[in-house]
Amino acid sequence: MQATAIAHPNIAFIKYWGDVDPDLHIPANGSISMNLRELYSRTNVSFDPSLHHDQFSLDGRHIDDDGLQRVNSILGRVRKMAGINTFASVESHNNFPTGAGIASSASGFAALSLAASKAAGLDLDEKALSRLARTGSGSACRSIPAGFVEWQAAGNDVDSYAFSIAPPEHWDLVDCIALVSQDEKPISSSVGHSLAKTSLLQPARVADAPRRLDICREAILHRDFNALADVVELDSNLMHAVMITSTPPMLYWQPATVTIMQAVESWRKVGLMVCYTVDAGPNVHVLCSREVSVEVADRLQKLSGVQKVLVAHPGGPVNLENE
Ligand code: PMV
């Protein structure tokens, strides 16, 4: 009754921000992302009849707050589907900083969903796994399928899941992640999602989402970097505009975040295939073509306030270890 799964985090090109159902994480709008091959969460789940409650450790630290409750909720769903009532021990490790805007919850809940369902003797298909992972953390549903992934908003539990729109080898895009801070973010994304509706700008952002999704999907399918760059930056800025104008306001950027965004803009103006996107944290994901990725990583490393640059290529789906 044990299994280990590995999942990659993903970077959203079109962002999920705001829920229509906060408990089930049914999003206000659809989203598109790319899995990040070099980064991963590795999660072992072991159902053990001698346990009196579920246990969870993350990077060797025993967790007993909200993190345990979210893990417990996935395990509860799995137990219900499998018709068992055994408690489990969950051990998860990330090979990248947790909670710093690199979506550790996405890879963590994707790996947990596969490991827990396998350990319970279930054989869930991709769609069922994506729906299960979504209930842990919305963006986790996008870390189940491979490569470039779309999550349809759908507005209901059954149809709100993610699927691959292109495999990882379709386009050799590179994500150079400029780390500005590796601290835990001050406001969790679940709180942020619930505050999105307090912004006057959220209805406009959501209403225009189908148009941005179409442009982004087409740009990926046609490997059109310029079209992708424009829509990715617009979408990131729209989400941060909503964050900044929510009550209370959330400003995730630090001075170095803006320095990087401005540098990326100026590099693109002189012909470098590069664009930025920022999640719920201060770090900047800089997307570029493979030909210029070494130069881009090098330029980022030299900017003031950049602590480190992580480089990731399009990644595969969630997988059981040794498969
Ligand atoms: O899945 P959550 O609740 O961690 O929310 C993810 C929110 C963003 O990373 C900011 C956007 C996204 O679509 O990944």
Shape: globular
Mean pLDDT: 95
Q: Give the helix proportion (percent range).
A: 25-40%
Strand content: 15-25%
**What is the correct CATH architecture of the largest domain?**
2-Layer Sandwich
End-to-end CA span: 17 Å
Give me the number of helical elements. Answer: 9
CATH topology of the largest domain: Ribosomal Protein S5, domain 2
Strand arrangement in the largest pleated sheet: 8-7-9-6-1-16
Q: Ligands bound here?
A: (3R)-3-hydroxy-3-methyl-5-(phosphonooxy)pentanoic acid
Assigned CATH class of the largest domain = Alpha Beta
- How many E strands? 16
- Write the element-wise H/E pattern from the N-terminal end onward: EEEEEEEEHEHHEEEHHHHHEEHEE
The total tally of domains equals 2
Q: Give the structural class.
A: alpha+beta
| Major sheet | 6 strands, mixed
Could you list the spans in which at least 5 consecutive residues all have pLDDT below 50?
none
Q: In angstroms, what is the radius of gyration?
A: 19 Å
Write a concise synopsis of the structure shown.
The chain has 323 residues and is of the alpha+beta class.
Explained architecture:
This protein has nine helices and 16 strands. With 323 residues, it is an alpha+beta fold. The protein folds into two domains: 2-168, Ribosomal Protein S5, domain 2; 170-312, GHMP kinase, C-terminal domain (Alpha-Beta Plaits). The strands form four sheets. The protein has a six-stranded mixed beta sheet. Strands 2-5-10-11 form a four-stranded antiparallel beta sheet. A four-stranded antiparallel beta sheet has the order 13-14-12-15. Strand 13 (274-277) and strand 14 form a beta hairpin. The two termini are 17 Å apart.
